Amino acid sequence: xxxxxxxxxxxxxxxxxxxxxxxxxxYDITEVNDGRVSFLGDADAIARANIFLRSAERIxxxxxxxxxxxxxxxxQGTKAIPWADFLPQDAKFWVAKAASVKSKLFSPSDIQSIMxxxxxxxxxxxxxxSQFPEDGAxxxxxxxxxxxxVTVGMDTTGESLHKRxxxxxxxxxxxxxxxxxxxxxxTPWHADRILVDPFCGSGTIPIEAAMMAANMAPGRNRSxxxxxxxxxxxxxxxxxxxxxxxxxxxxxxxxxxxxxDLDEEMVRISRENAKAAGVENLIHFQKRxxxxxxxxxxxxxxxxxxxxxxxxxxxxSVEAIYKVxxxxxxxxxxxxxxxxxxYEHAENAIGRKADKNRKIxxxxxxxxxxxxxxxxxxxxxNRNREEDQNS
Length: 391
What we know:
Blueprint: E1 4-9, H1 15-25, E2 29-33, E3 36-41, H2 43-52, E4 60-67, H3 71-79, E5 92-101, H4 108-127, E6 138-146, E7 149-155, H5 177-185, E8 195-197, H6 204-213, H7 235-248, E9 257-261, H8 264-277, E10 283-287, E11 301-304, H9 315-331, E12 336-341, H10 346-350, E13 356-362, E14 365-372, H11 380-390
Parallel strand pairs: 5-6, 8-9, 8-11, 9-10, 11-12
Antiparallel strand pairs: 1-3, 1-4, 2-3, 4-7, 6-7, 12-14, 13-14
Helix pairs in contact: 2-7, 3-4, 5-6
C-alpha cells in the first residue's frame, strides 16, 4: 500500500499532545511545526487518524512542496505536481485556505487563484480536455507558505475534527472539543480519578473525559470527506477502522466525572450532549455555584474553562469569580486545578502562582493553561484506606 506524508494541524501549543497521540496510534513522526505535526502513513492511516485522534483539527494528505518567491514560481511549482494521480476527471477541486508566514507571497486570494489555474493546466495535459465538470467528489486543498516554502495538502477531513457530532446545543463561548481533549491529556488525570468541571457550560470537558474513560474514538460516529475518495482510500478501510473503534470501547463502572454550572439551562444542555455522545451514565451534571464547590474525596482534579472577562465591563465580576474559585480550591485538600483562560490576573485572583503554565492559542486568542498541582495519591493499600476514610 502506498505511503503518504500526512499533516495534522492542531491548536498552537498542543503539538506535543498530538505527537504522542500519533505515535501511540503507531505512526512515525516526520516533522513538528508550530500548529501542526507531520507523519507517515498509508491509506489505512488516513481513516484511522481521522477516527481516533482527539487533539487534531483535520488530516491533510501532502501532495507536494516547493520554493516560490514569485507568482510565476508558484504557478510552475503547482503545475509540476502530478494532480491526475490524485484527482479524477470529474473532481471538484479548489484551494480552500492559504496561509502565509514570513514569505514574499502573502495574498491568500491571489495564491488561491493562481494555484487553481495551475492545477487546471496540469490536468488539461493529462486528460486532454479544457473544461472540467467538477461535479464529482470534493478535493479541497490547504496551502502553507513558510519562509517561501510552499506545502500543499489535500483535506481528507471536511468539517473540522472538533465537530464530533454530539454537541447539538452549546454555551455562548464553548471550548472546542479537540482543545478540551488536549487539555485533559496535558494533565495526569486517568479514568480512576475524580474530575470536576465547575464551569461546565455545554459539558464539553466532562464529555471528552468520559469518552476517554470509555476509550471511545471521537470520530467513530461522523463522516469524512475522503470517504468519497475511493481511488485513494478504499471504502472497506473506513468500515474496518470504525469496527476497530467500536471493538475498543469499554464502558467503566467506577468513573467519578462531574460537571457544575450556575445556569440550569446549561445543565440541561450538558445532559443532552452527553446523551448524544453515549456517555450520559458516566457523568453527573448539576446546577451548582462555584461558591458551593466541595468534594468529600481527596486527590481529585478540577479541569475547567472559566469565564475570561474579555469585555471591560466583565473584568470586575470575573475577578470575583476567580477569587471564589481560589478559595474553594484551597479548601479541597490534595486536589489539582487546571484551567485555561486569557484573564491576565488569574493567578493573583486565585491567590497562588501556578506550578506550570502553557501558552495555547484558542483560535486567535492567546490563552494560558494554568496548572496548580496537588500531591500524588498514595498507592495500593494506603490509598484504599485513605479513600474509605473520606467516602
